Amino acid sequence: MGEKEKNSKKSKKNKDSKSSPDISFKPSSDVKGLKFGGQIIVKSFTIRRARTLELLRLLSLPSPTSPPLLSTAAYIPTNFTILAHQAWHTLTLGLGTRKSKVVVFVFESEAMKTAVAAAAGGLWPSEIPLGEVNKKMIRKLKNWEMARFKFRKGCLTFYVYAVRNAGNEGFAAAEDLKVILQAVVALKDFMDHTAMLVMPHQKAINYSSCPPFAMAH
């Protein structure tokens, strides 16, 4: 009886280990999106597409010779958002939030990244209001599954979404996802938006000069 119980527990452990990568993946319609609490005005604040080196710098990751994370797309706050948060916080006598959002999508492969772009009309915006992210960049991905990770780091809240084909097991870009998640966890809290303002492409509020962004590199 003891041997039977031991084998049963071992079988259950192996089963749980095999299925564990799938636990947090859900259809895009069910996965949690960005949250705003009661501060609806924040939905009008914008985020912009980040270059790979900007993401590495924000996450305090070393910059290698060849660009890594080719299956990743990231969005960071614009100058407008940074200034708007500060103004909102001041006008509300400290009640308005100063927390901005960073959104990172990690796809299973660069090819999937291209496929998702094609399904979304070929381009993802170079800049988008936070209030439109859930509708245009999460719910729109109807043929894919996503896993959501959220981290609060002082004045920045990181939303990381792993994206895979519906019905797949595990996650093919697990190493990239692990690098990003570990980097975010290791970050110290951002006390202000200095890290955003010193980004090499963070010199203007208007990014209309940016070329259209196809999700293929």
Class per helix and strand makeup: alpha+beta
Q: Within the largest sheet, what's the order of strands? A: 1-6-7-4-3-2-5
Largest sheet: 7 strands, mixed
**Mean pLDDT score:** 77
Q: β content, as a range?
A: 15-25%
* Helix share, percent: 25-40%
- Count the helices. How many? 7
Report the uncertain regions.
Answer: 9-22, 203-217
DSSP strand count: 7
Radius of gyration, in angstroms, nearest whole number: 19 Å
Instruction: State the distance separating the first and last CA atoms.
Output: 59 Å
Give a quick summary of the entry:
The protein has 217 residues and is α+β, with helices and mostly antiparallel strands.
Describe the structure.
The chain is α+β, with helices and mostly antiparallel strands. Helix content is 33%, strand content 20%. The chain has helices at residues 2-19, 52-58, 79-91, 110-119, 133-138, 174-186, 194-197, and strands spanning 26-27, 46-49, 72-77, 100-107, 127-129, 144-153, 156-165. It has a 7-stranded mixed beta sheet. The N and C termini lie far apart (59 Å). 29% of the residues are buried.
Give the secondary structure arrangement, pairings included.
Layout: H1 2-19, E1 26-27, E2 46-49, H2 52-58, E3 72-77, H3 79-91, E4 100-107, H4 110-119, E5 127-129, H5 133-138, E6 144-153, E7 156-165, H6 174-186, H7 194-197
Parallel strand pairs: 4-7
Antiparallel strand pairs: 1-6, 2-3, 2-5, 3-4, 6-7
